[in-house]
Amino acid sequence: MKTPDLDLIASVLEGLEETIIYKLLDRAQFRVNRRAYTPGESDFTGEERFSLFDVRLRYQEELDAKFGRFMVPEERPFNTGLPHSARRVHAPENCLRIDEYDSVNLTGEITQAYLDVLPLLCEDGDDFQYGSSTEHDVIAVQAISRRIHFGAMYVAESKYRSNSTAYDRAVVAGDTAELERMLTRPEVEERIYERIVSKVEYLQARINRTVRRVVDPLIVRDMYRNSIIPLTKRGEILYLLSRRSDRPRG
Amino acid sequence: MKTPDLDLIASVLEGLEETIIYKLLDRAQFRVNRRAYTPGESDFTGEERFSLFDVRLRYQEELDAKFGRFMVPEERPFNTGLPHSARRVHAPENCLRIDEYDSVNLTGEITQAYLDVLPLLCEDGDDFQYGSSTEHDVIAVQAISRRIHFGAMYVAESKYRSNSTAYDRAVVAGDTAELERMLTRPEVEERIYERIVSKVEYLQARINRTVRRVVDPLIVRDMYRNSIIPLTKRGEILYLLSRRSDRPRG
How far apart are alpha carbons B43 and A155 in whole angstroms? Predict the structure, then answer.
């Protein structure tokens, strides 16, 4: 995105909602499978001390790194020490003003929020489908992460440009409470929550309930309310605090 | 699946339709990007003579193999020479009667059918998003492959059990035309095609067209009609020809 158009950014974020919902509904077809998240229970040769989820996420990110995923600003890695890209990647021009994309990296919080929601999303207990469960987990946390980091970076840049003097003042003062206040628009957030409920209902309205588990739309809404939106805002603040100044500060 | 219940098998196949449709709609958000499918153009260090699609699919399958994906009957690999599983996998009991799952492996035909449909699915030209495009491709061909191989194996086993004498006769005679005739139920196929059109329409009915490209439902229906259903039937025949006999033949 070459210029930070808030309407366009909001549309992209809206488009990512379907993606996140699909992934969560897919994961909900398996049981919670707690063993797959227990360190020391991976049953994976050479990686015994980790959980299967951690191993799968790291292996997938090592692959993704070779293909250049993390050269895209909103694709932030959950792991460190990943290999360099083996591809020449065409990185489109963007309007962001931070030198190090990983100044905005909330992947630790995203993993925790996702693992917390699993017992609500899935039927309790074990179906032993640990491989499929963690394969879906990785796709889901990557989709959630993309939404949060895309929102954090581009929304912050857009809002900054619309009111740079006031943002500069709060940044210089290190006043994160004021930044959060300036970034918050409760009526926009409420519209998102209502839309999420409506989408989850719609996407499940015609499914065959003999083969597909149905998810309570409020679980997805609450994940947005308690994690995705607050983490996006925290990312916006991190972005603003790391943003290259357009002019001398002070 | 411990006993091959045709209604249950049909429900699973129906559930996989949403998955396949979601994946195709996601891929359609990128341009055709022909360069990603051209051998010699991968721009990937050490893998220059392949296409980026081929490299991505092979790397993903090497990872998946380590996590035990191909120990599941319906997950057939597109590549050979893959590593062994590094996990102890809980393979649930199944009702299939073939010794070598890869006797039914139509992945070459699946890749070709998928690549043929891309220019219909996507806007022509290049957006240079080769990494994202091929990431989506791999997820899509794996979903299509799962549907075809699951259908081939379990539908064939179920139909065999309902009329084993007649199937045995055709198998012993090597009469594949007769097997195809016995396996074909045109009215079931027509119902699937109508359902596909209806699902693609429904899933796109409320999307925001300023940010999401809309796909003509007939493209997905024709992919089912020209590839997915015929390949499933070809897989059913392969399954029956490889099936362990329950009794002495002749």
Answer: 33
